[in-house]
Amino acid sequence: MTFNPADRATFAITTPLYYVNDLPHIGSAYTTIAADVVARFYRLAGYPVLMITGTDEHGQKILRTAQERGLVPQAHCDEIAAGFERLWHQLNIAYDRFSRTTDPRHQVIVKEFFQRVWDQGDIYKGQQQGWYCVSCEEFKEERDLLPEHRCPIHTNKPVEWRDEQNYFFRLSKYQTALEHLYAERPQFIQPDTRRNEVLSFVKRGLQDFSISRVNLDWGFPVPTDPDQTLYVWFDALLGYVTALQDPDEPPSLERAIARWWPINIHLIGKDILRFHAVYWPAMLMSAGLPVPGQVFGHGFLTKDGQKMGKSLGNTLDPFALVETYGADAVRYYFLKEIEFGKDGDFNETRFVNVLNADLANDLGNLLNRTVNMVARYCGGKVPLVDLNHLGEDHPLQALGQSLGAEVAEAYTQLSFSQACQAILRLVQASNKYLDEAAPWTLFKQGKQTETESVLYTVLESVRLAAYLISPVIPGLSTDIYQQLGYAVDFNPKTIGESLSYKDHSAWGALPSGQILGAAKPVFQRLELPTTLA
Ligand code: MSP
Q: How many structural domains comprise the chain?
């Protein structure tokens, strides 16, 4: 898939709606950072963008947590949802909508959607028997369980036996339609490993699933039978639709889908793939709605090989991490160091080393040295250089000319690590070039034109790198751009046309004569906490 901004008029992306059983952990931050990077990239590319995140607040798991804390469920949810918003601000996440499933507006959308599915004859009453994991809010096949009936994901939690009358959704009816969808649109589930998992799951034959619960009143009542409560996942997935609607309009399904539906990308972790790639498109087909563009299931952040999670209690506190190291550092580490789609382990020593090597040394020092030299040798202004005379084989120009397209492709494919590495190659080549070309010697020898040419190409490389990496580290890119004399920042609410991808991803965009700011380090070296050093 080649990136072509003219493909579509709008771009909408979602994170999962996170359970409010606890404050966010680093796993939730991971998905949200990635979604923010994609949204920022598409904004630069000129799309109207809607980035959606939010919280999933109904169901047994949340009810139990609230009870354990001695709070009424809504008060508990309000407190935790506020914690999510706080973390997103600290992490510099520029979301457009925060969808909460307890919002009364959401109930209107759920009711309408349910009615459509009901009218299709896709909901019926039946007997549900099986093992239920409250932490997953999902029935489990007996063969997938660990000894003592423990959940394979929440290994410290025994599943619970359920035997009750529920309403079922006729998933089996959509077996063929889903198979067609996967065959016709190979990009619908990505990466390929996830796609294959889904294909083999669907091939085993789809079974109807229950969409209501009895003896649970923390959720919306089933519209046709208020004695039952809608299953949390049925209501949660629809939170994406509710989020699309302008908050000032009265809620309605028709209005909600008017502008942004179908959503382009649902970004999720691999544990909730089945809900998004099988149940969700079937529900949408039943309601007569188009299916989303893509479901991308990334890997897990692990600690000692085990999924980090609230339920297992082995998570890393993202608030502390951001406070200690800053938002850009956290964003950069997870996206550059872990191939998106695969699992990745967190290690604090490695974290500090990577940031010091890439951002403090390679990028930060390069800027600092060059700005200082421009102050000394060129009166603090971007020198005037004729790029046509640099020669085809100029090491930085050759890299710089193709980088914009390469990085756009990587962002479009959600290959964040590849995008970062391609950008870093230009930065490293610039350091090497600067050392070899030695403008301090050229200057001493009175070779002013050569000195200026070297300094321009290095400054321009730093600019280009800062621009292309801005979706990942918007704070640092803003500082670099400002030091290069631009009066702009990468805040999505204010960038507008002034930082368009078309203009700024091109080699040679740095205007000569622009007055640089004073040289000051943009990224302080990080220190390991003494306990780890
Ligand atoms: N509430 C549901 C989603 C409903 S979407 C309509 C849910 N919430 S969750 O809070 O438990 O998980 C949200 C996301 O965080 C999932 O995509 C999950 O994969 C991700 N992660 C949870 N732990 C994770 C890691 N340790 N590593 C990476 N992501 C992980 O599921």
A: 1
